[in-house]
Automatic annotation (TrEMBL):
Record-linked PROSITE patterns: IQ
Protein purpose: Component of the nexin-dynein regulatory complex (N-DRC), a key regulator of ciliary/flagellar motility which maintains the alignment and integrity of the distal axoneme and regulates microtubule sliding in motile axonemes.
Compartment(s) where it occurs, according to its Swiss-Prot or TrEMBL record: Cytoplasm, Cytoskeleton, Flagellum axoneme
Organism: Cepphus grylle (Black guillemot)
Coiled coil start-end: 217-358
Signal peptide limits: none
UniProt keyword terms in alphabetical order: Cell projection, Cilium, Coiled coil, Cytoplasm, Cytoskeleton, Flagellum
Chief location bin: cytoplasm
Full protein name: Dynein regulatory complex protein 10
Subunit record text: Component of the nexin-dynein regulatory complex (N-DRC). Interacts with CFAP52.
Family: Belongs to the DRC10 family.
């Protein structure tokens, strides 16, 4: 027996201890599915026979070529039977039956040769991805049939009766639900009619509200006209009051202008003193800036010298790091070679110990064999001497 697939292992766990016949039936169905999958790949393999020739071998290749010839002959006969008249229908039917039998035998021979090599079957399933859609649908339908059969075989008569009773209960429940749905639909229709009546009433209310809104609009227009007239009167009164305030503000501006001129004359002398002080401060600031620029130029020169020295040392460091990397790589190679040599030495020592032990055992076995053979020869000589003495006595 071959190795069990995960699907077969699951089936075996689900089967009862006394269901050997069920297991046989499922095994036959699984083998049939495997043969169907393999037979559906035959046309794809024949189309790419040059690619699979080395993998298949000469015997399988020859059988596939023969199968291809039979398939073409079948297609030719079918096409010719459609073109010719019905006079030779019986003769062509006999040829088709015979060719059909030969084609079936060819498929069985190819499957027998392929199934004899499980590794080849597995490789072909990985290599050939395409499969005709009718064959794929048939294999899928057969797999569903296999699952259906497994479910039926694993279902006891009691469970079957329970399932039938459950289906009857479900149908009864469905009928009851249908009656409830019908009643609910009637209630829904009544509710819809009631809602339509309410909507009609609401439409009448909306019409009344529109009429009242029109009356309200007229009243609003009259009140808006009255408000506009009162606003115009108030605007004239506020305009007169604002003109009086503007005249008073203009007098205040003239008074404040006179005060400003007096303050300018009063503060002119302190302003001149502050301007002189500002000039002196600006001169001092210019002197400090020039001194700062001179100091910064000296610092910049020192910085450039230090940066140049730093750059040179950095370049030297990079060269040293490159040399270090090369040395580390060489060191790692040397360590690896040492480790390989140590492993070889240990392996040689192990082999030497094994050979020494084997030689010791062989020598011990050979010595034991020599001792046993010498002992057996001595015993035989003693027996022969005793036998001669007995004959002499007689």
């Amino acid at each position: 027996k071959g190795m069990e697939t995960p699907e077969k292992a699951t089936i075996t766990r689900q089967l009862k201890p006394d269901s050997i016949e069920t297991e046989r039936i499922i095994t036959v169905l699984d083998e049939t599915i495997a043969k169907l999958e393999l037979s559906s790949l035959i046309p794809c393999i024949i189309d790419s026979l040059d690619r699979f020739a080395d993998m298949l071998g000469p015997e399988i290749t020859n059988n596939l070529i023969e199968h291809q010839k039979l398939s073409k002959e079948m297609e030719r006969l079918l096409s010719s039977s459609e073109e010719h008249d019905t006079m030779r229908a019986e003769e062509q039917q006999g040829c088709l039956c015979l060719l059909e039998q030969r084609l079936k035998c060819s498929v069985r021979n190819v499957l027998r040769l392929l199934l004899a090599n499980p590794l080849l079957c597995q490789a072909l399933k990985y290599e050939v991805w395409e499969r005709e859609s009718p064959a794929e649908e048939f294999i899928k339908a057969f797999g569903e049939f296999r699952n259906f059969m497994l479910e039926r075989l694993l279902t006891s008569p009691m469970e079957e009766e329970e399932k039938i009773q459950f289906m009857e209960d479900m149908s009864l429940q469905i009928k009851k639900n249908a009656e409830v749905i019908t009643a609910l639909q009637a209630e829904l229709a009544a509710a819809i009619r009631t809602q339509e009546e309410e909507i009609h009433k609401k439409d009448n209310v909306i019409k009344d509200l529109k009429t009242s809104m029109q009356d309200l609009t007229k009243d609003c227009k009259a009140s808006i006209q009255h408000i506009k007239q009162e606003a115009e009167k108030q605007q004239e009164e506020e305009l007169q009051a604002s003109q009086g305030r503007c005249a008073r503000l203009q007098q205040d501006i003239q008074q404040l202008g006179a005060q400003l001129d007096a303050l300018v004359v009063e503060h002119r002398v302190p302003e001149l003193a502050l301007r002189k002080r500002k000039c002196r401060m600006e001169m001092e600031i210019v002197n400090w800036i020039q001194k700062y620029d001179a100091d910064m130029e000296e610092k910049q020169a020192e910085y450039e010298e230090v940066h140049a020295a730093y750059t040179e040392e950095k370049n030297q460091l990079s060269l040293l790091m490159e040399k270090r990397a090369v040395l580390l790589q060489e060191y790692s190679q040397i360590e690896e070679e040492r480790r390989i040599q140590e492993e070889k030495k240990e392996q040689a020592l192990k082999e030497l110990n094994t050979l020494t032990l084997a030689a010791t055992r062989i020598q011990a076995f050979w010595r034991g064999y020599l001792i046993r053979s010498l002992y057996k020869s001595k015993i035989k000589k003693k027996k022969k001497g005793k036998g001669k003495g007995k004959k002499t006595k007689k």
